[in-house]
Amino acid sequence: MRWVESGDVRLALFEEGDPDRPTIVLLHGYPDTHRVWDEVAALLRDRFHVVRYDVRGAGRSSAPRDRRAYDFDHLIADLGAVLDAVGKSRVHLVGHDWGSLQGWEAVAREGIRDRVASFTSLGGPGLRQMRHFMRHGRRRDVAAQRMRSWYIGAFLLPALPELAWGSVMPRIVTRALLGEGVTPRPGHPAPTLAEDGRNGLWLYRRNMAATLGDPGLDPSVSDVPVQIIEATRDRFVTPALPASFDRWVSGLWRRRLAAGHWAHRSRPGAVAGMIAEFACHVEGARAGTALRRARVGGGRRTFGGRLVVVTGAGSGIGLATARAFAAHGAEVVCADIDLAAARRAAETIGKDFGGTAHAVRVDVADTEEMENFSRNIIAQYGVPDIVVNNAGIAVVGSFLDHTVDDWRRTVDINLWGVVHGCRLFAAAMVERGQGGHIVNIASLAAFAPSRLLPAYSASKAAVKMLSDCLRAELAGHDIGVSAICPGFVSTAIARNAMYTGADLHDDAVRGLARRGYPPERVAAHVLRAVHRNQAVVPVNLEGKIGYALSRISPRAMRGLARLTGTTSVSRNRG
Q: How many CB atoms lie within 10 A of CB 475?
């Protein structure tokens, strides 16, 4: 530790690692000290020169005599003094909470901006950009952010916040940490927490009104590459706020992490990895798959930068879903047991949307093939953000006409195919720790019994229940699970189905053709389910009526099953 003079304050400066390596400066938030970065710094110091300091009024640094000296002018001057002390012309700046606010201000100011090679923001918005969001954002988004920012108004009150820091606030901070699964340890919270909390109130009192109320401040950030790490469970920042910054930053990367406000304490490995990868890329290293997808371009679409895997993507709902995700900016893996069909799907995506699509053959019923498939996808393209388990078949006929092989093949594809897709990719999503979404295509048959589809209906009911169970388990990892339950859809499933007993083929094909419900409309429901994280999505009129009736009167559904005719043979997809 050494001291750095900045005006009338002394800043406690801490350095680790080889000074000849690229320098990373870690700025802490309120009411933390530099010790909040201990775990991350330990993971970075072998590859970088790591610099930390306690901001004025926090930890071992002294407080200014004049409380007005907590404004951005003085904070940025402190940063400049630190950079002078370490003798670096350019550094990679990383900020959390108020440290992030300082970082955003630094990259907006002449003089200091030229000394920042890159900036990584974690859990702290830029006030210049936030001003525009609060004035011009959607009312619902702005209202949600105001609710999460309630504490700011409390901190601006006279005297009461100081009294709170002398009594209940230290315990509240500790409980908040424990609520995120972060165990307090020596150094965090700091022994100076109460005093740091009182001093740091002036960060809010000196900067919030001054910055948010100044229409002349330019929110644009040019020339400095910026990485936003969005902690998806941060109780203080809504997703809409950092999403609105795209328009202001010329070089922006956005990444998600399933963690709370203190992500650098709860997920230090993931945070350190993102910081290191970004800094190395700015220094000239080739970007990895995840970082390349995180790059935000002009007019980024809803699923831009996402990797989506769709099984059964060669035709029907699978093809329509793959195309819909590609049209909204996603990179898509089109998987199908028919490699030629998968290749046609990928080629049309590239031709029609200019998107990136890959064709892969896989038999979802084959355990070994699915294990190899998932390993190869992750190795070549990265962990998928969205997986759509769509591949399926239908066997049409009475239960007494179904053979054991009919049952085995139906369950192997319709149920085990979904189990394999969920099991293999969900594990990778959890390990990555950045959330994700799994979509399982079920059917109206999942809750509407039919005398002509016993194996199909049983397998689809199992898919729906599996989805409900998995949704409960994965919610804590920010991984959503949706069961899509279409009614009659005009696909090739009736033509490709296996029929037992009476010849029902022609009637089934004609029935679905007359229904005239295209798979593209099901695909729209799939995208909406992912965007809104919906659990069960009945699709089209008969799907919605069947789902409602199954909940209101299961007996009526059993009665309707006796009347099932040949138009009931196929529920959802090809």
A: 12
